[in-house]
Amino acid sequence: MFTGIVQATCEVVAINKKDGLNTLEIAMEAELREGLITGASVANNGVCLTVTRLEDDRVFFDVMEETLAVTNLTKLQVGSQVNIERSLTFGSEIGGHILSGHIHTQAKVRGLSNTEQHYNIELELDKKWMNYILYKGFVGVNGCSLTVGETTANGFMLHLIPETLKLTNLDVIQLGDILNIEIDSQTQAIVDTVERVLALRGIKG
């Protein structure tokens, strides 16, 4: 379980590609590795991955074929920066919202606006997921817990503050880039429940 508060961006220093499996080698600073053990869960760009090996300042993760197919981890290259969050521990402050680390879909960057006053990102995704992405609601984007801005039939806006840009890899994205999206589970549960109730009553949404 995660909160969507990214702790650091870390560099991919090697990718060992095999049939149906990629092993990521991530360089992590000592503070971020403290207490980390083999088998622990760590979010990489919002994807929950299991630590398979620790070696000096390197942490290794195996990424299965299914995960590669549905996330942007398949697009990582040596030198890429990934958003990293250690799993939530009992008693930790929850500054974002609860995330599972299971990616629902991906969004394409279709607009960027960077001025002295703002940094806005416009994202496009399959419109079926927009049932769960609501204005002023929460969404996980590359593992970051963010507030949803204006919405359209097949997309939404993000309005980012400098602190978010400093701590995450969202400051280096470009038009056409693909970002991992995890919708808010509570919003999904409420929307699906209401739709089922309305369907049982013969009411069309």
UniProtKB/TrEMBL annotation:
Gene3D superfamilies: 2.40.30.20. Pathway: Cofactor biosynthesis; riboflavin biosynthesis; riboflavin from 2-hydroxy-3-oxobutyl phosphate and 5-amino-6-(D-ribitylamino)uracil: step 2/2. InterPro entries: ATP_synth_asu-like_sf, Lumazine-bd, Lumazine-bd_dom, Riboflavin_synthase-like_b-brl. Lumazine-binding repeats lie at residues 1-97, 98-194. Pfam families: Lum_binding (PF00677). PANTHER family: RIBOFLAVIN SYNTHASE (PTHR21098:SF0), RIBOFLAVIN SYNTHASE ALPHA CHAIN (PTHR21098). This is Riboflavin synthase. It comes from Shewanella violacea (strain JCM 10179 / CIP 106290 / LMG 19151 / DSS12). The gene is ribE-1.
